[in-house]
Amino acid sequence: MSSESPRDRLLTALVEYAAAHGLADASLRELAAAVGTSHRMLLYHFGSREGVVAAVVSRVESDQRAVLAALAEEATSPSDLVRRQWALLSAPEMWPYLRLFFEASALALHGRPGTEGFLDSLTDTWLPVGLAAAERFGLELDVAEVRLGVALLRGLLLDAVASGDPSGPGEALERYLAVWESARSA
Predict the structure, then answer these.
(1) Residue 172: Cβ within 10 Å count
(2) Which residue ranges make up each domain of the chain?
(3) CA distances from 61 to 30, 58, 68, 163 (A)
(4) How far is it, in rounded angstroms, from Cα 58 to Cα 46?
(5) Inter-helix orientation angle 28-35/6-21, to 10°
(6) 3-state secondary structure at position 93
(7) How far is CA 141 from CA 21, 68, 114, in A?
(8) Of 68, 76, 145, 178, which alpha carbon lies 20 to 30 A from 14's?
(9) CA distance linking residue 127 with residue 149, whole number of Å
(10) What torsion, rounded to 10 degrees, do the Cα atoms 131, 133, 134, 137 define?
(11) What is the pLDDT of residue 163?
(12) Which residues in 23-36 are b (16+ Cβ under 10 Å) and which e?
């Protein structure tokens, strides 16, 4: 028997559905039917369709923080870590999740029901992971530097998804890493 709560089981199913189909065009009733529940149960657990989107994004973000921690164990340098993370996040199969991330951010900025607390964890949850990765490489970064890295990757990911081509943003990331490495070695 699964130790997951009913909400967590629904959320897992919603994440799987989002990966395969996206959520942008699905109504709450369609989402409920797709994951084998009722729209009332989705409302009960997530508050609204916007709450579903925010919960899916929060789960994916949590999973991505775990991936970043694992990548930090394999990476040979901070730049290698950033490149590995970029390769994963900018891959087309991640684009549905990225679109959801930016959608949930916009919904939360407008105070839509079900998105309460989303903005509170938007960046702050990434900071300890980034600081731990920096420490692994013997870097003494402060919170502002890690926040800059999060913002840089998010901005470049928005550019990649919006343009449909990650090559330009990827080149911009390489330019940034070259400047960063140069400044670090000076």
Answers:
(1) 15
(2) 57-185
(3) 24, 5, 10, 22
(4) 12
(5) 110
(6) helix
(7) 39, 17, 34
(8) 68
(9) 10
(10) 160
(11) 96
(12) beebebeebbebbe
- pLDDT in single tens digits along all 186 residues of the chain: 568 899 999 999 999 898 888 777 789 999 999 999 999 999 999 998 888 988 888 898 888 889 888 998 999 999 999 999 999 999 998 888 888 888 888 888 888 877 788 888 889 999 999 999 999 999 999 999 999 999 999 999 999 999 999 999 999 999 999 999 988 887
Residue whose pair of structure tokens reads 């797709």 in the numeric block: 34
Q: The tokens of 100 are what?
A: 């959801």
Predicted confidence at residue 122, as pLDDT, reads 87
Nearest by Cα to 63 from 5, 137, 12: 12
Reduced to 3 states (helix: H, G, I; strand: E, B; else coil), residue 20 is helix
The residue length of the chain stands at 186
Nearest-angstrom CA–CA distance, 55 and 8? 10
**Residue of 120, 105, 125 lying closest to 65 (CA atoms):** 125
Long-range contacts of 117-121 (CB under 8 A, 24+ apart): 118/54, 118/57, 118/58, 121/58, 121/61
Tokens of 59: 């789960």
Predicted model pTM: 0.84
* Sign of the dihedral defined by the CA atoms of residues 34, 36, 40, 46, in that order: negative
